[in-house]
């Protein structure tokens, strides 16, 4: 079964990669490490040995597991959804091989290819199969081919590696070959594989029907100015190659000047939650919101974390004073909610599937 999720920006999480190690300040309270340790203690084999619990926090051990049984999950879910890859690690971690990443993109290509899996007959569209060479209608193997397509949100803090792969010819070839295998039939598989990497002899690597993949958004975390600056060039390369991109300003740990990020399709913000969660200044969210609105970027504010401005929820308890005089109060994630200046922000970019 697919894993449904309470994450506000996705309908499912897809976690074929578990395990990681810290790369930036946002990792200090890594929720995934704590969750992985908990899931192992509940007997889930997939999480064996990747993390341990130390007091109230989780610590990665350095082991990263690529869990092959999970690869097929999106293809087994018929209803189109928005999938987050991955909430339990980092897709571009250096212990994830190029071949493993190519399998993931191959699955995403097949799960995004609703178009090829149907035929028109007597004015009626029949979905979920293909016509074989003898004219027989052959049902598609995976439930997702009956309705598809899924959309995927691929999030990393290791942008440069992903940029190098997505812009390189050999990775594209590996994805094309993986998609061929996952599509599981000669006619459609060949069409999908060729739409990723055209077989023409004069092909020089330009965009094609399924590359960049229209159902895949590539995103990075940008929790403060330093990390945003470190990751912007890589994201810009990916966007310039035609990929749709998003940034996750979560947890917002400092102000960010978003100048230069106009290429984004979506900007997501949110606060930190959990034990000793660090507070975010409401102006940091406002800066992200105003930038997104000024540049036609879909803006989604997930939640305020544990803290909220005293102007919105006054009362006793822990207060944090920012240098400019703004004060936030720790009220817990539920009470802090997800309103920003009295309203929710649920912007999603439109997806033009193949
Ligand atoms: S990159 Fe993500 S999963 Fe990895 S340590 Fe940082 S927060 Fe945790």
TrEMBL record:
Under the heading InterPro entries, the entry gives: DUF5131
For this entry, the protein name equals Bacteriophage protein gp37
**Organism expressing this protein natively:** Piscinibacter sakaiensis
